[in-house]
Amino acid sequence: MTSVAISLDQAFDRCESITRTEARNFYYGIRLLRPRKRAALCAVYALARRIDDVGDGDLPRADKLVALGQLRAEIAALRVSGSHSGADPVFTAIADLAQRLPLPLGAFEELVDGVEMDVRGRRYASFDELVQYCRCVAGAVGRLCLAVFGTRSDPAPDPHAAEYADALGIALQQINILRDIREDLGNGRIYLPQDDLDRFGVALALDEQGCLVDTDQGLSRLIRYSASRAYEWYAHGLRLIPLLDRRSAACATAMSGIYVRLLERIVQQPNLVFDRRLSLSGWQKAEVAMWALVGSSPVGSSSWEVPA
Q1: CATH superfamily of 123-308
Q2: What pLDDT was estimated at residue 300?
Q3: Using N-to-C axis directions, what is the helix angle for 246-268 and 35-56, rounded to 10°?
């Protein structure tokens, strides 16, 4: 059967529909962008989402690895040829972006690497190993977003911009890990480094009700320690914000701010993640986006601290 080519307008419309439906947190920031950048970031999100969905789907492990291999090959082919032909709206949009923007297509391949780690059930002995994983699944996305945002060039582009974007993504992934400890454990995944588990005397386990066990408050102490470390990465990544134009800065501040609000709640009450998937309400996310648009950071480093 011959595939029918899809127009660029149709491709970008489809990507925005995917993002509006699936990006429960990120879309609050993405919608703050001007139309061209919003369409571009939706395309980036749509391909990243497709890769993530393979790892989180119901296919057997072997089939997931095959599907990831196919995505890797398609991304590599696009990176080499610079073009895409066919009816796939997501790859059509990404191919167009790659011709207009300095889009690091290899970052999508890094994301595939990270999802493969999930599929294979990799564990992390140290925090440095965990950072490698976070760089693949989130730092790479930060660098892709930076390609869409662009940076101010007065007096010259900051050579550390990609480093800051990477750090911001790594910070948000650490927050994700803390929020989802219970859910991940139920799915057979443990992201907390073994070194940290040993340091705080934690053996992750669920009780009969499916809640995390916190013997002698060791898990609570570990969560607070990990939260402090995540915030250090976030503070470093925030150096990106002054390098962006107003709308791009608002987008990045809103997307990261929603996660930092979650981190604030987690560090005040670690037990909130013991029996549920913590989230903000729609109006709370909208509030973060509103403050980001007027140029206010969702949380100031001088006021953020981990309780003893």
Answers
A1: Farnesyl Diphosphate Synthase (1.10.600.10)
A2: 46
A3: 40
